[in-house]
Amino acid sequence: MLERAGIPAVSICTDAFRASAGAMAKVMGFPEFEYVAVPHPVASRTEKEIADMVHAAMPEIIRILGVAE
Amino acid sequence: MTTEPPVLGDAPLADPAEVRRAMEYYAEKGWTDGLPVVPVTDSYLKEFLATTSRDPAEVLIPMPHINKHLTVRLAAINAALAGCLPEYFPVVVAAWEAFRADGMVTRSIWQSTTGTAPFIVINGPVRTRIGVNCRGNVFGSGFRANATIARAIRLGAINGLGLKPHVLDQATQGTPAKYMCCIGENEEDSPWSPLHADYGFAAADSAVAATVIRSVLHVEARHSTAPEQLAFDFADSLCRTGALVRPLAAGYIVLNPEHARLCDRAGWSKADLRQAVYELGVKRYGELRRAGKEAISSGTHWRVPIEHPEALPQDVLDDEAPVRLIDTPEAVHIVVAGAPNAGVSSIVETFTRLEGPPAIAKVEERP
After folding, report:
1. Nearest-CB residue to A47 (from B167, B170, B309)
2. Between chains, do A17 and B111 touch, taking CB under 8 Å as contact?
């Protein structure tokens, strides 16, 4: 939605939601839409674990955004 | 002498292989909740559409974020698939209107992990006209109108809005109420005014109240002798820690007529029972703490442990300190349903905290 409005964006979900993410992309007419899947879960992790997850996902987020680091 | 239902001899003439082929076709397409559906032809669909003055293209539920819209025509197809009779269709349309007014369905609640079910309460003369069960086994099976009106909503979600389990419906576990949770109010055995009449409809109107729910809890109170005892049971059930995601508790009390009469005999009105449940709607801080739900998140406003990074600052209370979980009598709605044969009632745990009138739509029947 944001990208269609001209705002670069990357969708992030946990790997437990891959089926839904793929289905959403399909119903919105963008079946090959690239998104980042991080390990599940999020809600029960510590702040440190979340920060580590973000760092680990960053190269993939930047790759999908299509900008140089 | 056999008492079994007829197998074929007395049944209308049909080619069983053709019937099975039609049923398997729908199953293979995934146009089902798992149970067999009724095949729908154009002429059968017309019988449903003829019961309403609505344009078949009218949108009942808009879902632009998934590129879907549930039209009157789609609602009719799914009512027919569900096994509704055409004369049930105005009730199905009213139910969809109430779900739209309720607001949670259009905000994608049926894509959520919570896995909420449709909850439908039918009031007024249409109950007797189409045979809606309001009495014994009111949440159970055995009544075509209840079973198929509820199923029309579920199949509308699955086929009309594309909310299929494991795909766009991300429910972690769901609830058995997803199969059927449609009741009529037992107005005849209730000492009080019916739900729709409490919110501006004439008692002679037929109306449908709808919202989304997490679960239906059984409340046994067979030997209670005072309304205060019932109010304690209801408040305790509504405030159980396992139900708390949001800061506050809310729900319907589906009161059986025996409990309603017990209240009435003691001089309690529906408003008095709501007030009493509200007043008892507290938990001890220590109980919330032991469940890790003593604080509120600044981001989601969900209940979290006090040490959670998003926990809003708050004082650490004494374990015995009361924390209010029902903050207004309006958070509790009361419907009378079931048989007047035992002290068994239910709590229906709604997804949202109901504040003010529940979403109710009038059943518009074609003259």
Report:
1. B309
2. no
Cβ contacts of B272 within 8 Å, gap of 6 or more: B227, B263
CB contact under 8 A, B166 and A19: yes
Alpha carbon distance B100, B106 (integer Å): 7
- CA B106 to CA B163: how far, in whole Å? 12
- Per-residue pLDDT tens, chain B, 367 aa: give them: 556 655 556 666 778 899 899 999 999 999 999 999 999 999 999 999 999 999 999 999 999 989 999 999 999 999 999 999 999 999 999 999 999 999 999 998 999 999 999 999 999 999 999 999 999 999 999 999 999 999 999 999 999 999 999 999 999 999 999 999 999 999 999 999 999 999 999 999 999 999 999 999 999 999 999 999 999 999 999 999 999 999 999 999 999 999 999 999 999 999 999 999 999 999 999 999 999 999 999 999 999 999 998 999 998 899 999 999 999 999 999 999 999 999 999 999 999 876 678 999 999 987 6
B167 contacts in chain A (CB < 8 Å): 19-20, 23
Q: Which of B66, B166, B309 sits opposite A24 (nearest CB)?
A: B66
Determine the longest span between alpha carbons in chain B, in angstroms. Answer: 74
**HSE toward the beta carbon, residue B135, CA cutoff 13 A:** 7
Write out the residue range of the structural domain in which residue B102 sits. 16-281+325-362
Chain A residues bordering chain B (beta-carbon distance below 8 Å): 1, 17, 19-20, 23-24, 27-29, 47
Evaluate whether residue B231 is within a structural domain. Answer: yes
Alpha-carbon Rg for chain B in angstroms: 22
Residue B277 forms part of a structural domain? yes
Number of domains chain B contains: 1
